[in-house]
């Protein structure tokens, strides 16, 4: 019994020690004037310390979670980096789609250049169905179809001569042998024809003239421009290499460049051919047998 009472007295003494009041006095060292007096107990000091620690941790967590300071924490990606990652992912998906379309487009042009006949136009290769994997349908031309095609080409040739004579321009030759993949369209601002051909095909001048421009630009790659007689100008863009320099005089049909895929505006190996008469763009297909 006495042992139990002794233990209880020790507990009471411990509790009383936690509750004992102490006075904290701040004095002026010269005058001994009391500047600040605080009555504290160990229990009050402990309670205040715990509250201060908990408050500091909570406030720090809130600041880090809801302010840009969280980006300073090692291992935590900033919102800018995450946004850039999302944008790059979307651009990668788009580029993959464009790459697949270009591969289908080049495959279709290669089949045409091998002499095969495609039932649909080349632009259909870039449609959504083709991008999704639809095969290109091929067919063999019949004898009647071949004869009809030759007749149409002969009729077109004479009409081209007549149109050239109406504008008082010479008879022009095709700058390259290939397939017209994009025609002249004034409504969309496409003042040229795009002609796809085999790799390393030479680009020929459509008529006698003088080189007035031969250089490279970021948008159209290697460009060469020829000034002909009667205020006629021809331009050849997206070449892989230029064979002539400014000031050179060239003959009709003379090689002046190599077909290519240079420049930001190019989507595949082809020649972007423009024809200008007295400062106005004209449709090359109406004056040249392409």
Summarize the model shown.
This protein has 290 residues and is α+β, with helices and mostly antiparallel strands. It has 3 domains: 2-66, no CATH class; 79-139, no CATH class; 144-286, Glucose Permease (Domain IIA), CATH 2.70.70.10.
Q: Would you kindly provide a written description of the structure presented here, covering whatever features stand out?
A:
- The protein is of the alpha+beta class.
- The protein has three domains: 2-66, no CATH class; 79-139, no CATH class; 144-286, Glucose Permease (Domain IIA) (Distorted Sandwich), CATH 2.70.70.10.
- It contains five helices and 15 strands.
- It has helices spanning 2-19, 42-66, 79-113, 128-131, 143-166; strands at 22-27, 34-40, 117-118, 138-139, 179-182, 193-196, 202-204, 209-217, 221-227, 232-239, 241-242, 249-250, 255-258, 271-277, 280-282.
- The strands form four sheets. Strands 5, 6, 8, 9, 10, 12, 14 and 15 form an eight-stranded antiparallel β-sheet that branches. Strands 7-13-11 form a three-stranded antiparallel β-sheet, with no helix packed on it.
- The longest helix is centred in the first third of the chain and has 35 residues, at 79-113.
- It is rod-shaped.
What descriptive keywords fit this protein?
290 residues, alpha+beta, Glucose Permease (Domain IIA), 3 domains
């Amino acid at each position: 019994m006495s042992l139990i009472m002794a233990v209880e007295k020790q507990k009471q003494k411990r509790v009383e020690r936690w509750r004992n009041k102490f006075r904290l006095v701040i004095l002026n060292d010269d005058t001994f004037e009391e500047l600040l007096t605080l009555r504290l107990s160990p229990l009050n000091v402990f309670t205040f310390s715990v509250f201060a620690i908990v408050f500091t941790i909570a406030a720090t967590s809130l600041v880090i979670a809801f302010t840009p300071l969280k980006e300073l924490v090692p291992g935590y990606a900033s919102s800018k980096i995450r946004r850039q990652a999302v944008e790059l992912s979307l651009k990668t998906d788009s580029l993959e789609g464009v790459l697949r379309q270009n591969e289908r487009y080049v495959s279709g042009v290669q089949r045409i250049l091998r002499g095969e006949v495609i039932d649909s136009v080349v632009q259909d290769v870039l449609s959504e169905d083709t991008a999704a994997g639809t095969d290109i349908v091929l067919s063999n031309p019949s004898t009647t179809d071949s004869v009809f095609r030759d007749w149409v080409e002969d009729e077109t040739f004479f009409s081209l001569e007549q149109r050239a004579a109406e504008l008082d321009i010479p008879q022009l030759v095709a700058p390259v042998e290939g397939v017209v993949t994009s025609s002249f369209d004034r409504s969309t601002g496409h003042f040229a024809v795009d002609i796809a051909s085999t790799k390393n095909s030479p680009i020929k001048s459509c008529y006698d003239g003088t080189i007035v421009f031969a250089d490279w630009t970021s948008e159209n790659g290697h460009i060469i421009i020829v000034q002909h007689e009667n205020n006629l100008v021809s331009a050849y863009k997206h070449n892989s290499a230029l064979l002539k320099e400014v000031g050179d005089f060239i003959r009709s049909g003379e090689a002046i460049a190599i077909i290519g895929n240079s420049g930001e505006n190019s989507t595949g190996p082809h020649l972007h051919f423009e024809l200008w008469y007295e400062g106005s763009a004209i449709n090359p297909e109406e004056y040249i047998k392409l």
